[in-house]
Amino acid sequence: MSDPGKAGDLLAQIPTDAAKGLPPVHLWNPAFCGDIDMRIARDGGWFYMGTPIGRPAMVRLFSTIIRRDGDDYFLVTPVEKVGIRVDDAPFVAVSLQVTGEGEAQVLHFTTNVEDRVTAGAEHPLRFALDEQTEEPSPYVRVRSNLEALIHRNQFYQLVELAVPREIDGRVWLGVWSAGVFFPIAPQPE
Hints:
Blueprint: H1 6-12, E1 32-40, E2 46-48, E3 51-52, H2 56-63, E4 66-69, E5 72-76, E6 81-86, E7 91-99, E8 106-111, E9 116-118, E10 125-129, E11 136-143, E12 146-150, H3 152-161, E13 163-167, E14 170-177, E15 180-186
Parallel strand pairs: 1-6, 7-12
Antiparallel strand pairs: 1-2, 2-3, 4-5, 5-6, 7-8, 8-9, 10-11, 11-12, 13-14, 14-15
């Protein structure tokens, strides 16, 4: 679907109490209405019909109705479900605050759409390695099965916080948060 009014139609369907919290998109199962020309770039930028969505409040509102089913992303309202493209992850973690030290350390992330999460069992960190470039891509789960790509600056902060820990006879560098150790990479020999 490439109807220019489609994005506005979706916004009109979001329940008005959505501003008080996240809408229960996991409970909504409307019919699939097709794909719209909306894309979330790897850097967290949102585009509609090839044009950047420049209003942060609109991006934030759309971000509250995103859902991932399998490998596909959708914007979901009580009456409509439309497919969108996501280049990598729908969010970017743009801020990291650290409290405590050692095993008592807690990592607090803020995303580009103002979600705040504390890394731990409920919001685990994941480190993927690109097989071709061997460049790491760090992620934190934000909600349900939606992740934020951790911005390079915050990843460097994580690397500075990394400590060694033996796991299954191998020493890994990783970080602690909320009592959970997240391995980043094997310690160099």
